[in-house]
Amino acid sequence: MKVAQAILEKEEIKQQSSNMKRPFILAAVMLAMFMAAIEATIVSTAMPAIVRELGGFSLYSWVFSSYLLMNAVTVLIYGKLSDLFGRKPVLIFGISVFLAGSAMCGMVSSMELLIAARFIQGFGAGAVMPIASTIVGDIYTKEERAKIQGYLSSVWGISAIMGPAIGGLLVQFVSWRFVFWVNIPLGLLAIAGLVLYLHENVERKKHEIDYKGALFLFLSISTAMIVLVEGGIRWPWMSSPVLLISSAAVLTFVLFIRQEKRAKEPMMPFSIWKEKSIFIANMTSLTTGVMLIGISSFLPAFVQAVMGQTPIVAGFTLTAMSIGWPIASTISGRLLFKIGFRTTSVIGGAALIAGSAVFFTLTPDDGPLWAAFGSFLVGIGMGMTTTAFIVSIQSTVSWEQRGSATAANMFMRTLGNTIGAALLGGILNTRLQSYFREEGIGETIDLDSVNRLLSPEEASKLSADAMQALKEGLTYSLHSVYIMVFVFAVISFALILRLPKEKKEAQEK
What's the pTM value of the predicted model, to 2 decimals? Predict the structure, then answer.
């Protein structure tokens, strides 16, 4: 049965690709992915400079959380819409909204406005990664996808090298605002390539879009994120607001699941989750998403504020992660057909544990090179696992479900990013406040005092005692963050070990 399905798939791809220029489509897709990939490293590198100018260190995690919230909510919607109306119009719309949000981010005058603009940017970003990957799944065969995934992952390597370097140069010599404006020419080129070369034959029929499901999902994720970010900071964990909002998050999530089971064309078809390999892949993507945001969001602040390094050096520590990612992804694409999906994923899971162990034992005296080594190991783990997951998922489902299935996996990773940004940001703020209280300096130093630590000019005005207290407080709180990252690495590895035994799927044609 699988052999017949594979033959039909090849014929379908051959017919669809007859009037397509695949290299040009791939180039446009890679450009769109590059735009989204470079955003992660550039913004993380620029955040200390943004906080220095706009203030509001207590809102630090919201800059990431607002973007990730809209990304997480919309990724499933875009995936489903691409199955209903085709990949091309949905991806072009997403890129356009992303560019509008990027332009607004570069013009804001306060941290609150930046967070609002990031909401818009995230609303468009939800379409980029899943639809780009789905297009590759449409125009290439199962055997080709593993190789092409290596090309797509190389985008992360290129963006990792260029992103922090460009971001650091822009921050030091021009303005942090250009880290957002650099997206605009990239996005316009990607749109042009899609318009000129991607041609689809989509069956035109009336569809029922799952608006209720989208609403329930948005309410569930946003309320849960508010609790994770503000719990222990604005409200005590067992206070009435936290309990009330938590109850709302649980209730709306239950309503979302109920709606998805009743909808004729659900955003997330739970039927595909019955496949054990897909279920494990999606749950592991959730836990690794938490890890990823914990490292990429807070490592630059540690390297700059605690180690006293420049933005360029801080960017280098993140670059190492994204260099390891494409290298491992390329290797993973080859290993899938030699040692199998499960063994490849286990190797990646072991690398995740090793990398996270580096971070939770990291001290200010270890230096940026050791931090970069930890990033590289995490990148190896991410590259091994994500490539194996995507190739396996796209090979398991049909064209009509491929967009939703790919989006579901990326949704789980983005949901992990969202939860991680909120949860780990909350831990950071809570532990900082706790440290200041324990040291008896809570009345003279607060969370926003960290703003001064990120500015060389302001830091020079601090007394030696205040400087030491801020550095020790930040080290103490970030240590707690990285302990949690290590815990999620262990959970990820445990999930990977539960993947079904190899059925020699790689040898089927």
Answer: 0.69
